[in-house]
Design a protein that fits this description.
mainly alpha; 85% helix
Length: 361
């Protein structure tokens, strides 16, 4: 009898050990997947992040591992951030709460920054600034050693000031983020801040600084294979070149200015090669800019082609893009002599502009 009990006890201990080993192996696998997903986040592969995070979150819940549940909840927010901001907010909010209860204050601060970023995109600037500053308070209160949190704080603060047209302050915050990232050798992060500086400097009309920082950002993006940023850099090059055309046009230097339109189109075409098919917002903006160039060149078939491509990318509540789209289509119809249609789309453009104003979007 005693031998039987001992045998059963040994068997039970052995089975529990096997279960423990199996669970440990699953946790190790999920940890490796988590690290891979964060690597994908660095390269902007959001669809891949969502794919890995979704299945891994289910597994983490089955294992009842709160820390992995928290990490993959945060990554789900990252996976949804570009396509479905409302869902992203839910996941980031949940990660914020979980991080607080688990004492993961670094991820709590990061979640707060992500929430602030989305609120900024929704033009809820007061709430956005609150969450950005909250992240800094968490960083200071718990004396976090994760410098990436501080870097992201400055980046989000820069984008906030950029959104409210305070470009000098935005530039200052991008420079602060760049300084820390360079000190830490984080080139995969510094390229974003160099791009931000180039963008603000182009608005401030310091084209020497724009060219320097944009060139650095593009070079690093190419070295790291960051297709999204290669596309963004080419788009900004195209925009700056288009602006140079406008300057020469205003000075009645049309003969020497046509080269700038061709150059802008080349940059835009380069950008199109690197944008992912799912980057609908960026592609929509790109097609709108290409249409403007084609209109200037009186290449109306090409204008119509890209306007139609842009139309299918318009989001239901993106009244800004709809205002611009209708105005461009009105210009196209006017150039083609279709005046009734031109008036119709001009009226639609005014309608969306008023809707934008009434909703304070």
């Amino acid at each position: 009898m005693t031998k039987t009990i001992l045998s059963i006890g040994f068997l039970l201990s052995f089975c529990l050990a096997q279960v423990s080993i199996a669970q440990s192996a699953k946790v190790d696998s999920l940890t490796r997947i988590k690290e891979h997903a964060y690597l994908l986040a660095k390269n902007g592969s959001r669809d891949s992040i969502k794919f890995y995070a979704e299945s891994s979150l289910k597994m983490a819940r089955k294992l009842q591992n709160p820390h992995l549940i928290n990490e993959f909840t945060y990554l789900m927010g990252t996976g949804y951030r570009l396509k479905n901001r409302e869902k992203a907010l839910i996941y980031y909010g949940e990660s914020f709460r979980l991080s607080d209860s688990l004492g993961n204050y670094s991820l709590k601060a990061q979640s707060s920054l992500k929430i602030g970023s989305i609120l900024r995109l929704h033009r809820k600037y007061d709430s956005a600034l609150y969450h950005i500053q909250l992240a800094k308070e968490i960083f200071d209160e718990f004396k976090l050693e994760d410098e990436k949190v501080l870097i992201k704080y400055y980046e989000n603060l820069a984008m906030y000031h950029e959104a409210i047209s305070d470009f000098d302050v935005a530039n200052e915050k991008y420079l602060a983020a760049l300084k820390i990232s360079e000190e830490k050798g984080l080139s995969h992060m510094s390229l974003y801040f160099e791009f931000g500086i180039a963008k603000t400097q182009s608005i401030l009309k310091d084209f020497k600084q724009t060219a320097m920082y944009l060139g650095r950002s593009l070079q690093k993006s190419e070295e790291l294979g960051n297709n999204g940023m290669i596309a963004s850099c080419n788009t900004l090059y195209g925009t700056i070149t288009s602006q140079q055309y406008e300057v020469r046009k205003s000075l009645d230097q049309l003969d020497s200015s046509q080269i700038y339109l061709d150059s802008a189109l080349n940059y835009y075409r380069n950008a199109k090669r690197y944008y992912h098919a799912d980057d609908s917002m960026q592609l929509n903006k790109l097609y709108i800019m290409m249409t403007s160039v084609f209109n200037e060149q009186e290449r109306y078939d090409s204008s119509n082609h890209y306007l139609m491509a842009s139309y299918y990318l318009l989001r239901e509540k993106d009244f800004t893009s709809k205002t611009v789209w209708c105005l461009l289509y009105s210009d196209l119809k006017k150039a083609l002599g279709e005046l009734d249609s031109a008036r119709h789309y001009a009226t639609r453009s005014l309608y969306f502009a008023n809707l934008l104003k009434s909703k304070n979007l």
